[in-house]
Each structure stands twice: as structure tokens, then as C-alpha cells.
Amino acid sequence: MNSKQQTVRLSDGHFIPVLGFGTYAPREVPKSKALEATKIAIDAGFRHIDSAAVYQNEKEVGLAIRSKIADGTVKREDIFYTSKVWCTFNHPERVQVCLEQSLKQLQLEYVDLYLIHFPMALKPEEDLKAKDENEKLLFDVVDICDTWKAMEKCKDAGLAKSIGVSNFNRRQLEKILNKPGLKHRPVCNQVECHPYLNQRKLLDFCKSKDIVLVAYSALGSHRETRCVDKSLPVLLADPVLCAIAKKYNWTPALIALRYQLERGVVVLAKSFTEKRIKENMQVFEFQLTSEDMKVLDGLNKNIRYMSGSRFQGHPDFPFLDEY
Fold this sequence. Notes:
Blueprint: E1 7-9, E2 15-17, E3 19-22, H1 32-44, E4 48-50, H2 58-70, E5 80-85, H3 92-106, E6 111-116, E7 121-122, E8 139-140, H4 144-156, E9 160-166, H5 170-177, E10 188-192, H6 200-208, E11 212-216, H7 239-248, H8 252-262, E12 266-269, H9 274-280, H10 290-297
Parallel strand pairs: 3-4, 3-12, 4-5, 5-6, 6-9, 9-10, 10-11, 11-12
Antiparallel strand pairs: 1-2, 7-8
Helix pairs in contact: 1-2, 2-3, 3-4, 7-8
Enzyme class: oxidoreductase
Family: Belongs to the aldo/keto reductase family.
Keywords: NADP, Oxidoreductase
């Protein structure tokens, strides 16, 4: 990790800021909130912005980025922007179409990182939903190696500086790494990761292959009813995490974020509250002892807040493997 620049080098030579700003919000949150929050985040010092086609907020996030470029706060090259191809576009002929739609929404010429959002394909639908009359997802089967080949073309075309994956297990990563004629390796795997799901085995595997692990839901979860089991424990209320936070005189959220940085994980922090957005930048102001890191490692319960339950039954469902 390059602490001066607060970035880590990707296998293709580009650099990713180790702290990212997540822009996902439940559908009932007005899209204008993403515009306001992204501006606040850039003003606070965030340079890594994470979004996706399926979040349907790239128009607002792009406007925020461009407004901060226009007012002289940043240059385009200062911003590391991540987008993701949605499952209804996993067919190889549709991957670049999805990226071009994102770029049109963003009004940017390229993204810094483009990810396969999930290894599971859905039936090609223009509205991103691919559901039947009972709101059940319409599964499709696409070889992820074919999707990856289309991702490589996006990189070669200059539309994405780097390419990676999200929500892939070890077996699915190995499938791409062992693909005949592989031109560009995945630079990262973005997965749910926090002290209750520390992904130790997947992290070790990724490190062995020079793949950066990027953590989402690093503070637990937004607890959206549609996606999350409300009976699961609240990570930031964990007594051990809170005791460590009290010891360092920082918030439990900052301890959870710092935990990831100490492990060499790139971490996304999502908040639309100005105070918390600014607070999250303080993660660089302290370090955790190796003893406290071991205590935090001991919190692992393999609790997955984002279980992907709507995708269960899909032949490429990634969360049944151990890692």
C-alpha cells in the first residue's frame, strides 16, 4: 500500500484509492441524494467513487463529478470511478452496450474500473429487471469466460482503464484465470466483507493471484428490507467492536474501515450523511495494533447480510461454495 497517495497498485499498473465512496441507496431514496452526497464526498477528499448501472444513479453521480471538475476541485484524472455491468447484459454482445449507456449517463469518456456485477446472467431486458409477473428473476445461462472476453474488449477500446469482477467465488475466479487466450486478468474482486464476514480464505486466494479484494457492506449493511434479514445482528453495535472503538476514541464505523485497510483490502464507505462522510476520511489518522486486529478477526461469524436470496437456484450462484 502506498500510504502517501493512499492508493494500491493494481496488476495492470493502474492505482486504486484504498478508500472508496459507495453510492448505492435503496430505491425509495431520491436520486438527488446521490448527487449531493457525491459532491460532499469529493469535497471531503474521496477520490474513488463506486456505482453501477443497476443503481440507476449514474446521471446524478456523473453530474456531481463533472461539477467538481468544473469548479476546479479535481481534474478527471484525480477521480477513480467504478461502474458495473448488470446481469441482464452478461451476454457478450451486450457488455459494451451497458458500458456505453453508463458513459452516456455519466457524460464521461471512460470509467477507471468496470466490473462484472455478478457471475449470474439474467434474461436480456432493457429495463434491467428481468422479472416475471410474480416478481421472480428470469435466470439465463452465459459462460462467464465469454462475458470476460467482452470485458477485455472494453479495456482495449479505452472505455475502461481496468476490468474486474464482483461477487465471484474462488472457483469462478479460477475459471477466468485459466481461460485459454486470457488477455487481461481481473484486477479485483468486489465482495461483501466486514468483521462478521472477513473473507479470510478468499482474501488469501486473491492476494496469491495479485487480485485486490474490494469490500462492500464494510459497516454491516443498510438493512434494506427487500434484501436483508432484519433478524441478523447489527455489526456496529457489536460489544467487542464498540469496546475497541472506545479504546481508540474513534467510532465503531472507523474501526471497521481501518480493519480492512490493515488487511490490504480496498474498502468502500457508504453514507449520504455529511457528518459521517467527513468522519470516514479520518480512517487514515490512526492504526490498529496487531493484538486488536486478532480480536477483530475473531468476530468472524460468516454472516452474509447481502445473501443474494433472489438469485438462489441460479446455476452460477456464487455463495454456496466455502469461498
